[in-house]
Amino acid sequence: MKKYTTLLLLLISITTFSQELNKDCEAIEKKVIEWRRDFHQNPELSNREFKTAKKIAKHLKSLGIETQENVAKTGVVGILKGNQPGKVVALRADIDGLPVVERNNLPFKSTVTSNYLGKNVGVMHACGHDTHIAILMGVAEVLAKNKDKIKGTVKFIFQPAEEGAPEGEEGGAELMVKEGVLKNPDVDAIFGLHISSGQDVGTITYKPGGIMAASQSFKIKVKGKQSHGSRPWASIDPIMVSAKIIDALQTIISREVDLTNEGAVITVGKIDAGVRSNIIPESAVMIGTIRTLDYGMQKQINDRMKEMVPAIAKSYRAEATIEIAKGYPITYNNIELTKQVLPTLQNVAGKENVTLIKAITGAEDFSFFQKEVPGFYFFLGGKTIGNKNPYPHHTPDFQIDESGMLLGVKTMTQLTLDYLNN
Ligand SMILES: [Zn+2]
Ligand SMILES: [Zn+2]
């Protein structure tokens, strides 16, 4: 009997605590919206998030959180130690905007311009990373307030350059990992979210395993022999060889990989060859992208491309080389961790609002963290219910319904506590 009484008391205390937390999250919603509007109005490009980082650092310091600045150039890391020792969990928000001219009529619309690849461009939080910053700042405030109830340590990672560092620069999650952001104290698990302009406010979507694809770019160079266009027998035609290569690459997807396992994509996005109608050129260059959701399939595809490309060229008397970049890893939700966090998502959002989705062939650099430690990444609704025509991410009309952010604060807070305290 005593055992049950203790269990009951424990359950009651857990329930009251999560009710308290909910209240703390709700109390902070207004501030989160204000922060988001400020970031929205003052977006900064990848690796140039100077003012953004200052504001984040100021907030973390005001909460008494140990703060590191200039991590991976413009990143900010906060370390909050709970009152009892335990595991270490990291929470990540990406903080960069995009070279997009905002076309919304919001009172806090961005009119910021900046230099991008030598051009003057408009800057906009057109992917919703402004909401990610504000949500994580809110979570930091709630958790700092409840520090006495935390068993372990929380690392807040405000990551620059998710959209990709400017050419020739390092950046993003990869650089953060390289600089040791997951060490000292060593992170046991990491959580991240992305707001979605196409998903109803109040909902969460997730997938165990590969949720977003690994992305690798490739470059194929074909060398033939130039001739007059009227005398193809005098040539080795690199355009014809390129056509054979493109055709063959698609058979890797349609005839070699097991598509019942996961999807995979090879796209040739650009062919560059020739100057005019009556010249068969000497060479051709193709570039493209590979998307995979499984490392075994990625290796198979890479290996076969490397075998096929020179062999096909050779069979037509040409030469071809292929380079495949390392690219972004798979955004891979650890299976065990996903199982473990699902009840938390369902408790916070309501079971009916948490949906399993199919994989997305886009990529996300959160994957670099997940390559090092178990991680869980999910999507948060940011679309006004009933809006039939939401604008996609990275477009000038992109908009987020701010009422969706509260669920983000609640979910991240509860995920942290459930992970550390259980
Ligand atoms: Zn984006
Ligand atoms: Zn994004």
UniProtKB/TrEMBL annotation:
This is Amidohydrolase. It comes from the Bacteria. It comes from Tenacibaculum skagerrakense. Its cofactor is Mn(2+). The keyword Coiled coil does not apply. GO terms for molecular function: hydrolase activity; metal ion binding. Belongs to the peptidase M20 family. The lineage of its organism: Bacteria, Pseudomonadati, Bacteroidota, Flavobacteriia, Flavobacteriales. Residues 217-316 form the Peptidase M20 dimerisation domain.
